[in-house]
Write a structure and sequence with these properties.
The chain is an alpha/beta fold. The protein is built from 12 helices and 10 strands. The protein has 2 domains: 72 residues; 248 residues, Rossmann fold (3-Layer(aba) Sandwich), CATH 3.40.50. The longest helix has 43 residues.
């Protein structure tokens, strides 16, 4: 409002000032010794005098815009990250961790409206995952598998029920403790402008390039690193734009490996990568999951076939639970999903 008022006011003031100079000059006329050249000089000097006033209104308008932007930035920074921290946190036990999902129902909050059971994305999901087991979450789009993965990672709390890790409800686990023991590898990992080594070491402060080289060898990705222009010192660019989608995923897997968590939540991102990169990702995932409790949100049924156990979701409900071979023999929802995936891949 201030800018909208000042800018036209400054323009009107400038016009009136120049008009006043011209009127006074005409009234005085040549009889006062005012020549035409002197008149034009006065007009130019008037314009020079008015320029700072116009610039002031412009600067004021830009300042108002900057202040509005600053308020938005501060508002984003003040937003809490994830659910509220517990007042009296409980430590997670040492060693490998199991996962216990107890009668979980979840609805995404709707602005201005109360959530109801009809809006639930997950309904009464119960599952126990022993420590060290590799589990695949499968289901059609919108079945709730990604939401369940987010609840296990405590990006949100269940509307009803609870998720426990190591026998401790996530509502009572501090964020620092949870993030040091549980790592999420998302479909679109965020990379900072810098080298591959710097992005991998970000997961654990004080990591040396030798530590990064060790995890590269452990995940069997040395061949890929050797193919990069500068190896581990290759610059990934802003948000990793110098790398392909599959290569960004490989950096994310190395970052998870350097963090050395007890629980892994993996959101597969192999649907849009070339065959060689897919093999590298699958191989690295196998090495990374060894000895860890692993939840893989499987978009490809080949991942489910390799898992120790498959949880099948449909319309937010857990409808099947078992090994790949047993679920295929049961000819239920999982078998239908697997047959559809096989038919789709056979056409390419």
């Amino acid at each position: 409002m201030i800018g909208a008022f000042l800018f036209p006011s400054g323009e009107v003031f400038s016009v009136l000032t120049v008009a006043a100079v011209i009127v006074v000059g005409v009234v005085r006329g040549p009889d006062s010794g005012l020549t035409a050249g002197a008149m034009i000089g006065f007009i130019f000097l008037t314009y020079r005098f008015l320029e700072p006033i116009a610039e002031f209104t412009e600067v004021l308008d830009q300042t108002q815009t900057a202040v509005a932007g600053l308020r938005r930035v501060l508002g984003v920074l003040d937003l809490p990250v994830g659910p509220p921290p517990p007042e009296h946190p409980r430590p997670l036990p040492d060693g490998r961790l199991d996962i216990d999902v107890r009668d979980v129902t979840f609805s995404y909050p709707t602005r201005g409206l109360a959530s109801s059971s009809d809006d639930a994305v997950l309904r009464h999901v119960t599952a126990y995952i022993p420590a060290g087991q590799q589990v695949a979450l499968v289901g059609a789009t919108g079945s709730g598998k990604t939401t369940l993965g987010r609840l296990i990672a405590r990006f949100a709390d269940p509307t009803i029920g609870e998720v426990c890790i190591g026998g401790v409800s996530l509502r009572y686990v501090s964020n620092e403790d949870l993030r040091s023991r549980l790592v999420v590898v998302s479909q679109e990992p965020f990379l900072f402008n810098g080298t591959i080594a710097a992005n991998v070491g970000f997961a654990r402060p004080g990591t040396s390039i030798d530590d990064v080289a060790e995890i590269v060898a452990r995940l069997d990705l040395q061949e890929w690193i050797d193919s990069m222009p500068d190896g581990l010192t290759t610059d990934v660019g802003e948000r990793g734009d110098q790398l392909s989608a599959g290569e960004r995923q490989l950096v994310a897997l190395l970052r998870a490996g350097i963090a050395d968590p007890d629980v892994l939540v993996l959101d597969e991102a192999t649907s849009s990568v070339d065959a060689l990169t897919e093999v590298r990702i699958s191989r690295a995932l196998d090495h990374l999951a060894e000895g860890r409790t692993t939840i893989a949100i499987a978009h490809r049924m080949s991942t489910a076939a390799r898992a120790d156990r498959v949880l099948v979701l449909r319309d937010g409900m857990l409808v099947e639970d078992g090994h790949h071979d047993r679920l295929i023999d049961a000819r239920g929802t999982y078998a239908d999903l697997y047959d559809a995936w096989m038919a789709a891949t056979a056409t390419f």
